[in-house]
């Protein structure tokens, strides 16, 4: 059963520019017309704009710019995507941490935690993910794979590529993948991914895939070194992107790819698919493997998801973890 606000929003979204009569909404919800009106008034306070015309009814003319649980759920229901639990929070320390707490509380998987802001958003190796409120997405998907860790090795690449492909296909934004965990546009980072897992003996107990995406929020007030290397989706498709719809759309993209990954962790043709969106292919890069930097030309990935580098002596070597920067420096972007 959907909550009343979700039902109202779903009906209005599906009606598009057409009006929906108050009595139809009231009938669907089993409440009075005054009850519907008062729900709409409450929603107006959270940033929705509804046009109301006598004898015709209501239509939705503006969505809130910030994250809104009932709107995410309405979009999700329209897409027919269920089976993933959804937790929407205005602010949290880190969606990865919240997902871990929910896993520890035996919450059924799969589920996703989506927040409007993070106070302690994290990247890899103790780095920070800048997570201001308004207009960006911070999402963590939780799963219980019960597979050996070796079989989950390239999960971040697979999920990252699925998100990248979706953004290209649905919004025509030229997003690329940068091994191992970034999405970039024209050399600037638009999203970062952080996969964290807990392992029992030889089995992965649970896995959290976190992704932070700069969507519509401005970079005013960001630390200069982060802003200089950051991109936002809204710079490329300002009118078609809606934060809550995008959050809902990404749920079946990630959950679907995760299910496909479990079926087939070494999907034939994946390395070729990767190349189609690979930001590093043919570029001179420096990979920092531990303390030992390796310079070479990137040539995509192998079937295990390792980065293939051709070193100046003409040999090809597979890099399976670490950082990669373009050129010879070690600046991360
Ligand atoms: C990452 O780390 O790129 C992984 C970021 C994962 C963030 C998500 S948000 C939802 C979930 N909850 C969390 O707490 N985390 C995940 P790394 O490769 O270590 O890159 C971090 C570096 O990216 C920083 O040192 C900055 O240089 C840069 N950076 C930080 N915030 C950024 C932003 N909003 N946009 C672009 N670049 C950023």
Describe the structure.
The protein has 333 residues and is an alpha+beta fold. The protein folds into 3 domains: 4-62, Orthogonal Bundle (Arc Repressor Mutant, subunit A); 69-275, Bira Bifunctional Protein, Domain 2 (BirA Bifunctional Protein, domain 2); 280-331, SH3 type barrels. The chain contains 9 helices and 14 strands. The protein has helices at 4-15, 22-29, 33-45, 69-78, 95-104, 155-171, 224-227, 243-263, 270-276; strands at 49-53, 57-62, 85-89, 111-115, 137-143, 175-178, 182-185, 188-200, 203-213, 284-289, 292-301, 307-310, 316-319, 323-326. The strands form 3 sheets. The protein has a 7-stranded mixed beta sheet with strand order 3-4-5-9-8-7-6, with helices on both faces. The protein is elongated and about 80 Å long. Mean pLDDT is 93; it is low at 328-333. The structure holds biotinyl-5-AMP.
